[in-house]
Amino acid sequence: MAEGHAAEAVDTDICVVGGGPAGLTLALLLLKSGVRVAVVERSRAHQREFRGEILQPGAMRLLDELGVLAGARTRGCHEHQRFRLVERDRALLDIDYRSLPTPYDHLLSIPQAHVLDELLLHCGKFEGFSYLDGRRAGGLVKDADGRITGVTADGPSGKLTVSAHCVVAADGRFSKVRRLAGIEAGRSDVFDLDVLWFKLTVPSGGSDRERDVRVFRAEGAPVLAYDSWPDKVQIGWTLPHGGYQEVVAKGLEHTKEELAKAVPPYADLIREQITSLKDLTLLDVFSGRADTWAVDGLVLIGDAAHTHSPIGAQGINLAIQDAVLLHPILVDSLRRGDASAAVLGAFEERRAADIATVMRTQRMQSKAMLAHGAFATRVRPKLAAILKHTPAYGKILRKIAYGNPTIAIAGELFVD
Ligand SMILES: Cc1cc2nc3c(=O)[nH]c(=O)nc-3n(C[C@H](O)[C@H](O)[C@H](O)COP(=O)(O)OP(=O)(O)OC[C@H]3O[C@@H](n4cnc5c(N)ncnc54)[C@H](O)[C@@H]3O)c2cc1C
C-alpha cells in the first residue's frame, strides 16, 4: 500500500479485468441485465496506439444492437469498401464488402478509442458500474477451497481489492490474470512473421472517396495498408520472424529504402516522414489458445483466451462475440450462485469450435497472401483467379465478415 493511503475495497457481482473491446462489451451487457460490474483497467485513457482499428460487419451489427455504433462512428471513422491483394500493379484478390447486405456492407476503420469511449459512456449510465482505471491487476483473491473470488490491483491511490461472484480475465494477449491462475497461454508461432507498424500522414487522407484495405506485394515482404482516421495511412510491413533486427542493423536509411521498395505508392511519404526508428513499432505475431478458459471463479475471454494473427482483422469481432456469448452464462451463474468451472466452462464448450475455425482460416489466408518463394509467387495469381469464380468466394467473405453468424445478444435478459 502506498504510504498515507487506506486500502480500497470494492464489492461487486462480476469483476472484469481489462477494459478493451471484450471487457467493456461484456460490462455493458451485464449492466443492462441488472448485474453490478467493476472493470479494472490498467491504463487511464485509451491512448495506446497500434491497437486493431478495423471492424468487421459482425462486430458492427452487435455494437449497433447495443446502441453503441452510431456514437462511436460520430467520433470519427472511415468506411472501406474492399479488401484487395495487389501484386505489383495487378489486383489478385478483390473482396468486395458491398456484396453483403446493408447497412454493414463495408469494413470500418475506426480508432479503438472511439469504440471504447462510447462503450464507457453507456456503461457509465448504470449505477452498478465501477470503472477502476489506472489500476493494474496483480493478484487473485481465493477462498479456503481455492476458488477465485476477486482480484487485487495497484494504482496511484494504493492497493485495491475487488471481491466478486466471479472474475473475467479480459486483459489481452499477455493476460496477467491467466498467468496468475496458472493457465498456459498455448502460444504457437505458426505464422513465422513479425509486423512492423507505422502511420503516415497522407495529404488527401481525410477526403471523402472510395477506400480499401490492401495487402501489397511488390519487391520483398508483403505490406498491409489502410486509411486510418482522420488523415493517416496505417502500414504493416511483414517480415520473417527476427528479420527486423537484420534490417535495422543496416541503419535508418536502409530500413526506409526497404520500406519504400515494399510499398511504392507511399515511397515519398516514407522518405519524408520516417525520421527515426522510433516511428516504427514491432509486433510479435503469434497465435495462442489458452489451455482452459474456465476454472472455479474465473473465466477467460477475448485475446486472453485466444490470440490471433492480425491477418483478416478478426480480433475485435471475436472479442465482442465472446462477450455476447458469455453474458447469459454469467447471468445464469449469478442466479444459481454457482461460479464453478463446470458452469463457466459452458463458454468454452460453445465457443471452441468457432475459434478453431478462425485459426484454420487465418493460417490459410497467411499462406495464400504472405508466403514467399518462387512456387507461391507463381501459384498465387492462378489460385486467386479461380477462387473469384467459385461459391467458396462468398463463403470465405461471410466467414471473415461475420464469424459465427448465429451469435445473438440475449436481449431478453435486459431489465432496463
Ligand atoms: C498491431 C495490431 C493490429 C491489430 N489489428 C486488428 C484489426 O485491424 N482488427 C481486429 O479486429 N483486430 C485487430 N487486432 C487484434 C485486436 O486488437 C484484439 O484482438 C482485441 O483488441 C482484443 O480485445 P480484448 O478486449 O480481448 O483485449 P485488449 O484489446 O488487448 O484489451 C485488454 C485490456 O486489458 C488491459 N490490461 C492488461 N493487463 C491488465 C492488468 N494487469 N490489469 C488491468 N488491466 C489490464 C489493457 O490495458 C487493455 O485495455 C490487432 C492487434 C494488434 C496488436
TrEMBL record:
Keywords: Monooxygenase, Oxidoreductase. SUPFAM superfamilies: FAD/NAD(P)-binding domain. Residues 11-360 form the FAD-binding domain. This is FAD-dependent monooxygenase. GO terms for molecular function: monooxygenase activity. InterPro entries: FAD-bd, FAD/NAD-bd_sf, PheA/TfdB_FAD_monoxygenase. It comes from Streptantibioticus parmotrematis.
